[in-house]
Each structure stands twice: as C-alpha cells, then as structure tokens.
C-alpha cells in the first residue's frame, strides 16, 4: 500500500479533530431569530399584542393560556355548566369553538358544550357560513342547534331588506339576533352563552358608545360577563342565561394567525348587507391608532372599564329599570321590547316605527291603527297596541316567539 495514499495515524487524528470542531462550531452557532420564549426554535411570527417574536408552539401556548387565564380570573364557568358557543362560521367563533373544546379537555372544566347558530336568512352569506358551522360540528364533535329569524319572527333578513332597504337593516338584525340567541339558549337548556367578540370588537364598541354618549351600552359592552333575566309571558318561567366573552382581551390579528397556523376551517366573507358605516369608521380609526401604538386596543378597553365603573358609582346616571315585554316576555325596560316594536312596524308596513320616534312616524302609526280598527295609542308602548293579532287582512300575522315547544319541532332546527 502506498504510504502517500494512507493518512498517518497522527494526520487522521488531526482530520477527525477538525471535523468535530466544525460540527461543534455549527452547533454553537447562535440560532438566527430565536423564539423569545423557548430560545430553541426559530421565531416565525411577531405577536401583534406584545411584539414578542415566537415560534409556532410557543404562540399556541401563550394564546391558549391567556384565554384560560381570562376564563379562570373572571370565574366565567362552574363545573358542570352547559355552555352554548355562539357560532357563525367566521374566524372568531370557529377559533372560540376550537379553543373552548381544547381548554375544556386540557383543564377539565367539566363543561357540556353545544354550538348555537342564528340563521338570519341572508342568501349568499349565512347559508354558506352555516355550512362551515356544520363542518365544525363534525370536526369538533360538538352538537349544533340552528334557529332562524324566519321561524322566530316570520321575517328573514332578505325579507326585511326588501321591505326597508339597506339603511337600518343592521338595527333590525342586531335586535333580533340578541333575542334569537337567548331563545336558542332556552331551547338548548343552557346556562351560559359564550360569544367570539374579540378585543378589537370591544374597543370599537367602546369608542362608538363614547361618541354616542350611550352610557348603559358602554357598561354592557365592557363587562366580560352579563346576565339577562327573561320571563315567560305567563310569568311562570324565569330563565337566567349568562353571556360572556372569553376573547375580551384577545387581539383579532392573533385570532387570524391562530386560525391560519392551525388550518381551522372558517368562512371569511362579509355580510352582503354590510357595511355598518358607523362601526366601519370606528374600525378604521382604531386601526390607524393601533399602527402608531400597539397597546391602543387594550388601552381603550381599560378606559371603557374605568368609565363604566365611574358611571356605576355616579348615582345621578340611573340605568333603566328592567322589566319584561308584555307581548313576548323578553327582558325590556319598556312595555314592548325592541324586537316586538320593530316587528310591529314591519307587520304594519311602517318599518321606521322602532327606529325613530318622529312625529311623522307616529302619525303614520296612528293612521295605520285607525285603518285596522285599533284604538289610537297615547304612546308607542301603550298596551292597546296589539299588531300581531290585528284583524287587518293586509297585516302579515306572525307566529311569535312565545311558542318554543312548537319551534323545537321545526324542520329547520338542525339539532344533533
Ligand atoms: Fe346582520 Fe348587518 Fe351583520 Fe349583516 S352586517 S349580519 S345585516 S348585523
Ligand atoms: Zn418557542
């Protein structure tokens, strides 16, 4: 064997040492852009809320743990609670359903989870998003109930928009949705509804309520948990359903990131009857502020909380006393709840009735009552108004929301 082709033992040892050194140098080479938490994996994202650079697993961990801490710190649930997740198929409620199930299993909350969806009857939007909710039902193995405006009120949003145009449609939709969620919760026999309202939504609502000077709503929107008491018209049944927002401090951008990295199945199209112009302006304003100062969203929520605490402490700012609607039994500070007032307007061809209180509308209302043989009311909330039972053949008679037992048998109820 040619001695030149064979390394001497000393040379071979030198080669081995060099190779070990190279490996060690490679191993010791600092990781480029490491995760701020674990330091062992490259960061792949910058948290919008804190600016921390994190790897995927650490992001999941902080995101989920913050929501768990919000739930625990605010004592949102008791073991054994039956909780409905308000599900629209959008990113917020899809992530909420996923995280609620995950945390319920991880921390043994002992919750009985169900999905509750509202079908407003918006062709080309809600019908598609409800398909997403049905897939989520199967993916997460959580039962689903869908309740529709058409069943509850006799009107879909498509019908309402045909009637009133696209000006006040969101007012009708918002009032009807609030009641529909409660009605669905009663059908499901749940103690609690969680919704996917995130920190950005709440900050926008705080801004809007401050700009409108609406203090009762300011209080409501900043509370993480609210309590509605409603009573059946017979006065026999009282339902007490809590509502809470586990995403109160969760940034919208982080919800989108979480859904994206987890590859969750959600629906991302805007409602065809949007935009709600006022909220749109508040949103743009908020995003501009956030671009300058990252903590803007949480700062506005904290300001809203402080303001609402001072409203509560100020005796001169009395909140309306809550009673129940004489027609449907829903919680209301007036004789008729807002949904019944809006329905009355729709059924009488006076859709402005519940929107404004101008003399012209009032005159139209009185004229319609005279035409239908009803006595002229002295006020809009007078007990003499009974539009849903009007004898006028031109007035659409709706089956109202009292008869929940009947609704439970409707074919559109998709209960699993
Ligand atoms: Fe209803 Fe308006 Fe929302 Fe559409 S944008 S779902 S009409 S509240
Ligand atoms: Zn990490």
From TrEMBL:
Signal peptide: none annotated. Residues 374-384 have a biased composition (Low complexity). Keywords: Cytoplasm, RNA-binding, Transferase, tRNA processing, tRNA-binding. Residues 324-353 form the Cytoplasmic tRNA 2-thiolation protein 1 C-terminal domain. One of its GO terms (cellular component) is cytosolic tRNA wobble base thiouridylase complex. It is found in: Cytoplasm. Residues 83-270 form the tRNA(Ile)-lysidine/2-thiocytidine synthase N-terminal domain. Pathway: tRNA modification; 5-methoxycarbonylmethyl-2-thiouridine-tRNA biosynthesis. Residues 1-23, 370-391 are annotated as: Disordered. It is an enzyme of class 2 (transferase). Its EC number is 2.7.7.-. GO terms for biological process: protein urmylation; tRNA wobble position uridine thiolation. Gene3D superfamilies: HUPs. Residues 1-20 have a biased composition (Polar residues). GO terms for molecular function: nucleotidyltransferase activity; tRNA binding. InterPro entries: CTU1-like_ATP-bd, CTU1_C, Ncs6/Tuc1/Ctu1, Rossmann-like_a/b/a_fold, TilS/TtcA_N. CDD domains: CTU1-like (cd01713). PANTHER family: ATPASES OF THE PP SUPERFAMILY-RELATED, CYTOPLASMIC TRNA 2-THIOLATION PROTEIN 1. Plays a central role in 2-thiolation of mcm(5)S(2)U at tRNA wobble positions of tRNA(Lys), tRNA(Glu) and tRNA(Gln). Directly binds tRNAs and probably acts by catalyzing adenylation of tRNAs, an intermediate required for 2-thiolation. It is unclear whether it acts as a sulfurtransferase that transfers sulfur from thiocarboxylated URM1 onto the uridine of tRNAs at wobble position. Prior mcm(5) tRNA modification by the elongator complex is required for 2-thiolation. May also be involved in protein urmylation. Belongs to the TtcA family. CTU1/NCS6/ATPBD3 subfamily. This is Cytoplasmic tRNA 2-thiolation protein 1. It comes from Mortierella alpina. The lineage of its organism: Eukaryota, Fungi, Fungi incertae sedis, Mucoromycota, Mortierellomycotina. The gene is CTU1.
């Amino acid at each position: 064997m040619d001695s030149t082709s064979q390394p001497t033992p000393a040379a071979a040892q030198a080669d081995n040492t060099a190779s070990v050194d190279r490996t060690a140098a490679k191993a010791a080479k600092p990781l480029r852009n490491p995760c701020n938490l674990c330091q062992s994996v490259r960061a792949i994202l910058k948290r919008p809320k804190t600016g921390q650079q994190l790897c995927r697993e650490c992001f999941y961990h902080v995101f989920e743990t913050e929501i768990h801490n919000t739930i625990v710190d605010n004592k949102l649930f008791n073991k054994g609670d039956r909780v409905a997740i308000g599900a629209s198929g959008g990113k917020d409620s899809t992530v909420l359903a996923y995280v609620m199930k995950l945390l319920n299993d991880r921390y043994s909350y002992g919750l009985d989870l169900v999905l509750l969806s509202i079908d407003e009857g918006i062709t080309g939007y809600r019908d598609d998003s409800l398909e997403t909710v049905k897939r989520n039902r199967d993916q997460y193995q959580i039962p689903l109930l869908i309740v529709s405006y058409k069943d509850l009120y006799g009107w879909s949003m498509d019908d309402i928009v045909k009637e009133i145009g696209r000006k006040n449609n969101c007012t009708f939709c918002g009032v009807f949705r609030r009641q529909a969620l409660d009605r669905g919760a009663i059908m499901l026999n749940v103690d609690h509804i969680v919704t996917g309202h995130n920190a950005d939504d709440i900050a926008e609502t705080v801004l809007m309520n401050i700009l409108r000077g609406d203090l009762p709503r300011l209080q409501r929107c900043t509370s993480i948990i609210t309590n509605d008491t409603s009573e059946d018209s017979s006065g026999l049944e009282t339902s007490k359903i809590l509502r809470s927002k586990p995403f109160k401090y969760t940034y919208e951008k982080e919800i989108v990131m979480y859904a994206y990295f987890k590859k969750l199945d959600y629906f991302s199209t805007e409602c065809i009857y949007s935009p709600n112009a006022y909220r749109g302006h508040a949103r743009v304003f908020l995003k501009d502020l956030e671009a300058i100062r990252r903590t803007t969203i949480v700062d506005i929520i904290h300001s809203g909380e402080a303001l609402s605490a001072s409203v509560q402490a100020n005796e001169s700012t009395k909140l309306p006393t809550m009673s129940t609607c004489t027609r449907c039994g829903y919680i209301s500070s007036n004789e008729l709840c807002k949904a019944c007032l809006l329905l009355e307007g729709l059924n009488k061809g006076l859709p402005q009735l519940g929107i404004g209180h101008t003399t012209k509308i009032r005159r139209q209302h009185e004229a319609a009552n005279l035409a239908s043989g009803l006595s002229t009311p002295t006020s809009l909330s007078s007990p003499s108004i009974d539009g849903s039972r009007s004898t006028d053949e031109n007035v659409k008679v709706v089956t109202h929301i009292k008869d929940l037992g009947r609704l439970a048998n409707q074919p559109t109820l998709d209960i699993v």
